[in-house]
Specification:
By secondary structure, this protein is α/β, with parallel strands linked by helices. It has nine helices and five strands. Strands 3-2-1-4-5 form a five-stranded mixed β-sheet.
């Protein structure tokens, strides 16, 4: 499986207000291993930064003045991601901006989802850590990924950090078959009956353990009025 971990930087928070992409960073994974291939491009936006956006990225219109506009890098960027699964943190944000950029070039470019599958690492993190902060910085700390060198938001650096976070976040899934399709059409259920081969050993619970159990059940019964052990003991009684 080929995956591209992707991040963008923009002139503001909403493409609907005319904000543009100023940086794209991508890291390639094949079978969950970094290949060393990356894609990184600064882009001249031809519009101003919103207040605070330049401070977050450390970029400026002066720095971007000699960089190519999006239409000049679109084909190379799309060639890098075509057919892959894109791993993006808060995918709606980046995909929205990229689709907006493509729409400016004409309908024949289509949209990102027509070219690549999308895996939103933010949704994965929220499923695994509900109710907790799941920003990239928070996940780096939680997953043991060193991000001490992340002083500013940068697309390639953030993609590299996200790749480490994603691999840690999803560790074990491919080993137990989560990533492989399951052919349920030809699966056959087999009933296995195991016959006893000898006398079961008799086990005696120490009196001290029985007393602790009884006290615990009594405490639950006092608090809740009833506990599951009551139903189990009733079912065990002879009719």
């Amino acid at each position: 499986m080929r995956q591209i971990v992707l991040d963008t930087e923009t002139t503001g928070l909403e493409w609907k207000k005319g904000n543009r992409v100023v940086e794209i960073g991508c890291v390639e994974l094949v079978e969950r291993r970094p290949t060393g291939r990356t894609y990184h491009q600064y882009i001249r936006p031809d519009c101003d930064f919103e207040q605070g956006a330049a401070e977050v990225t450390g970029l400026s219109l002066e720095f971007l003045a000699d960089k190519p506009p999006f239409e000049e890098i679109a084909d190379a960027f799309l060639a890098f991601i075509d057919g892959a699964e894109l791993v993006i943190h808060n995918a709606a944000f980046d995909v929205g901006f990229l689709d907006y950029e493509l729409s400016r070039l004409g309908p024949h470019y289509g949209d990102i989802r027509a070219r690549a599958r999308i895996e939103d690492s933010l949704l994965l993190a929220r499923q695994r850590f509900p109710g907790q902060r799941n920003s990239l910085d928070a996940l780096c700390k939680r997953m043991g990924v060193d991000n001490a060198h992340r002083q500013l938001h940068g697309a390639l650096l953030d993609a590299q950090l996200l790749a480490e976070v994603y691999l840690a976040l999803t560790a074990g899934q491919h080993e137990i078959g989560f990533e492989a399709p399951v052919d349920t059409g030809r699966s056959v259920a087999h009933r296995v009956i195991v016959q006893p081969t000898g006398v079961r050993p008799a086990l005696r619970v120490p009196d001290a353990d029985l007393a602790l159990h009884a006290a615990r059940v009594a405490a639950i019964r006092t608090r809740a009025g009833r506990c599951l052990w009551d139903a189990a003991e009733e079912a065990a009684l002879p009719a």
